[in-house]
Amino acid sequence: MLKQQGIVTRDPEDPYAQPSEENPEEDKTKDITIFQDEEKVKALARLLKSSHPEDLQAANRLIKTMVRQDEMKMERLVKRNTEIETCCNNIKLLTEMLNHYSPSSPFSG
């Protein structure tokens, strides 16, 4: 439904999924995220072809902005993965505690 409404453009990746062995090149291309915005890429190409110093400075700023955005995206991804890992560890711990819980235990309340 989110895809149909245009909110999400592709399915989210499962952090626990095994890498696909069918097409290993596909996984490599997912890592290149800086130049995914076509409009920015076209503007950058136009600016780099120019011989005006102002355009080259604008291209430099655009590259820095794109790199900064990619770094922020990677930081959010790392943070999200860390949170997911923490949650999974907490679930495992809670499951283990529940498996060892005995209502007749002297510590149960």
Automatic annotation (TrEMBL):
Transmembrane segments: none annotated. It comes from the Eukaryota. One of its GO terms (biological process) is Golgi to plasma membrane transport. It holds the Pfam family GGA_N-GAT. GO terms for cellular component: trans-Golgi network. One of its GO terms (molecular function) is ubiquitin binding. Residues 1-29 are annotated as: Disordered. Residues 37-109 form the GAT domain. InterPro entries: GAT_dom, GAT_sf, GGA1-3, GGA_N-GAT. PANTHER family: GOLGI-LOCALIZED, GAMMA-ADAPTIN EAR CONTAINING, ARF BINDING PROTEIN (PTHR45905). This is ARF-binding protein. It comes from Desmophyllum pertusum.
